[in-house]
Amino acid sequence: MKKLKVLALALICAAFTPAKADEGMWLLQLMQEQNLAERMKAQGLAMDIADIYSPDHVTLKDAIGIFGRGCTGEIISPNGLILTNHHCGYDAIQQHSSVEHDYLTDGFWAKSYAEELPTPGLTFKFVERIVDVTDKVNEDIKKGKVTEAESFGSKYLKKLADEGLKKSDLKGKPGISTQALPFYEGNKYYLFFIKTYSDVRMVAAPPSSIGKFGGETDNWMWPRHTCDFSVFRIYADKNGNPAEYSPENVPLKVKKHLAISLKGLQEGDYAMIMGFPGSTSRYLTESEVRLRMEGTNIPRIAVREARQAVLRKEMAASDKVRIQYASKFASSSNYWKNSIGMNKAIIDNKVLEAKAEQEVKFLEFANSKNNDAYAKVVGQIDAYVDRVLPIRTQLTYFAETFRNGIEFSLASKVSVLNDLGVALEKNKKKDIEKAIADLKEAYAEIHNKDYDHEVDRKVAKVLLPLYAGSVPAEALPGFYKTIQTEFKGDYNAYIDALYDNSIFANEKNFNAFIANPTREAIDKDLSAQYANAVSDMYKELTNKLDEANGDINLLHKTYVRGLCEMYAPTPKAPDANFTIRLTYGNVKSYDPKDGVHYKYYTTLKGVMEKEDPNNPEFVVPAKLKELYATKNYGRYALPNGEMPACFLTTNDITGGNSGSPVMNGDGELIGAAFDGNWESLSGDINFDNNLQRCIAVDIRYVLFIIEKLGGCKNLIDEMTIVE
User: Signal peptide location in the record (predicted)?
Assistant: First the structure.
């Protein structure tokens, strides 16, 4: 009977007609079954839904992919030109920057293919095919090949993906890989075939004063005036296949690219976004929302705030440090502010009350169906929260301190030292030589071009005591005993000894050890002791959390199945999991509070109004001021002569959607999504149709900056532009 219910959910989630057009990160492969076309056309969609996604022919889907490790990008020319956000390309821009070539400050503009910069490690991924494997998973569970709990695990999902590729006609094709994932908390499963291109080159990026205008202050806020874009290009071998970087590679001739609209937009216009939203949690219970607030957000805010204060001061004092830590700081700051805003919005938007109300209705529904599993599941989830809250809190403090905060002597280097110690004990020459070679790589990895030993020392002096004051004694790694016993509780003295005297501290120490490596030196080394202790505590905390988690995946599966049944025929899209999704809505203003109205667009005038030469977040480049003064906007201006900057839509987005194309009813590009608004930062948990807004940069502002400020008419000429 249980298996029949699992199958029934697929029918329920695929058959109902949506009541709201705005909420939902919809699966492309279910759009037809969920009858989305009618609602989308009512909102203003002019194109055939089969031209958005179809397994049988080239569609809009084929112009959109995963940019880098966690963003979306879209193809905007036949020659593989990628548009994404400036903050998505920030790692690459920073990677190419130096004091001599400060592309972060000055921007970068390639006027020819020859000037485009190879970017090692950067990839672009297309979704080639999507296959429903729910029946396969249910059959494996039925036959005992895997338990229901194991079907969520990485081991089984990898096996499922490997088997899918092995049986596919795409097996052996260059760049092809597969990924299997659960949806609706394990009530549905899909297999994704991914094509990865690994030669991606930097083409254009505005100065950070344009691409990051407003900085931390404006992040997650409206009104916004940030021209948040960067441009890259995919290169392939002469046959168009993915290939590692080679001077012989050529720009990829893509099978689909987006046309760009200069027709403008008005309030109420249709807008849709396709991209890769990273993670939402719309099905959490009230207690799980509290878990997010207390066990994740509060610890994250505390540690990142302390670290960022150090980095901010050091970056302001040195251009070298500013460039080294620019990307790290931006990454840290983004979800520091998000966590602050989320906790505030949860309270302001009464999310806890809404969840509690839903649970009352769900219990009534469960009782009306005489379904004991549904009636018990919320209480079982509450018990899970009671178990995991202290562990989750400790683990968040730990991760933010030792994995995302302090960089020196990371636990990942422990195995290298340990391998050398074992080789020395056995006195095996080849093993010793290999371990020393690995050790040299580890040293170079620590002391890379984006690491400053003295800055990291200052971070450690702030974070180590903060961690000790935030968690119980049993969550302290073993080196804290060393601080108390050998350094009399003096954190600064311990950290100075660690950063001055250990094997990895500097080249002199490292070379002296390499010249005469001994097991005794390894055992006595503070960095080895520190890293071993950090590694041991991480294993201990994660094991505790795994044990406390129990059967939470199965409880969520039951709860989501029940909610889908309760809300039918209203649609419930699955939570985001960094797979390709579509969201549709409209261009729309909003009223955040009494007496305040935000219109749906901003202009370049607002950049000039915000200018503050004494605040690095609000500096305006002289050339942009000159273009503004002369109104030299070309064909990109509004009918009234102003230059559009950013606009708002009701699209349902989250992290991962950064860089996603915002398209009109004809599927033409009108902007690039880059942020959400402050008032709705609880949206990952509970969507508010009145407050939720996507902030996008107007494509006309992007093209204006490329052509008039960057002087890259060559890029404009290769795009398909609709006047």
Answer: 1-21
